[in-house]
Amino acid sequence: METNITFPQFSGNHSITNCSRDNILKTVVFPLLYSVLLLVGIVLNGVAVWVFFRIPSRSHFIIYLKNIVVADVIMTFTFPFKVLSDSNLASTGLRIYVCRVSSVLFYLTMYISILFFGLISIDRCRKTLKPFRGTNAARLARRKLLSGAIWTFLLILCLPNMILTSKTPPSKYFKCSDLKTEAGLLWHEVVNHVCQVIFWGNLVTVIVCYTLITKELYRSYSRTKSHNDGGTICRAPSGRTARTPQQATRKMNANVFLVLAVFFVCFVPFHFARVPYTLSQTRNVLFDCKLKLFFFQLKESTLFLSSLNSVLDPLIYFFLCKSFRTTLFKTLHMPPGSCSWLTGRGSDPDTGSTPLRDSSVGT
């Protein structure tokens, strides 16, 4: 949620700045990419909503995933406005809507996803270190309250950005900061700092959790390997080598790292690119036009990676949540064991694949 989220709009070759960002990358390439993302996102998130409405919230993991689904759906429906705005097809009124509402919702859902990725990482770490610890109605109720508190907090944080973006555009060429009141600019700076804390705090959380998960997986693998030294190879009736329980376990263990992969692909590049981009906007004497344009294009490219979160999250639902797979297969009239070669076997119906200790039984 930055002051310069939406940039000056242009018509033809007329520009109010000598350092124009209105090039083919901004007006053609990114609108096309976001259009594809919109179509794919509608299909994948539509399926995710359809499936999750049929799954009861019987674990922390399911609760967190349902919140991410809602955030992804909202983010997906902001893409058409960005496409129209960036391609210079939007009217002045629609561009004002992008500044006041659409871009705010986009960043709202991004940081909601970041927070729930942090919570999922904590949950996966807990399931790894204490695999036999169950849950109860009280714990589930607390997670639902926590989810509601996260949405409420970020909505309250972002609402003034909508309300205080109320000035009349000075001309047909404007950026979002031109619409903000003095109080709006000040509040926007506060929101930026809070969002930075949210990201960096969750980045540390994710790194710590997956470091602990990796250590526990290594210990588990070492124990399993020592127990199976000199063992026999399992063969299927057809004579082919069958996958052993340990192989299935390793497949499930690898799937756990999908959360880490999606987090780093989608959110880390943008927040690292955001630092020099913000400096280029606030320290004019340090950056010439070419450098400013480079950082702008870098920011837009990494912002697109953040948008990919809305279509990569379904991978997490499919690979880490057996309840999701089971319900999806039933809906598609597919046999229950479909895709087991990808997902592993024996994962818990509600919590997804989790690392195992000395046995091959899912936790």
Characterization of this structure:
- GO terms for molecular function: G protein-coupled purinergic nucleotide receptor activity.
- Residues 350-363 have a biased composition (Polar residues).
- This protein has helices at 24-52, 60-76, 79-86, 92-129, 137-163, 182-228, 245-256, 258-266, 268-282, 289-307, 309-320, 322-331, 340-343.
- By secondary structure, it is an all-alpha fold.
- It has one domain (24-225, 251-343): Up-down Bundle (Rhopdopsin 7-helix transmembrane proteins), CATH 1.20.1070.10.
- Helix 2 runs antiparallel to helix 4 (92-129) and helix 8 (258-266) packs antiparallel against helix 11.
- The longest helix is centred in the middle third of the chain and has 47 residues, at 182-228.
- It is globular and about 70 Å long.
- The two termini are 40 Å apart.
- The relative contact order is 0.14.
- Mean pLDDT is 81; it is low at 1-18, 238-245, 345-349 and 351-363.
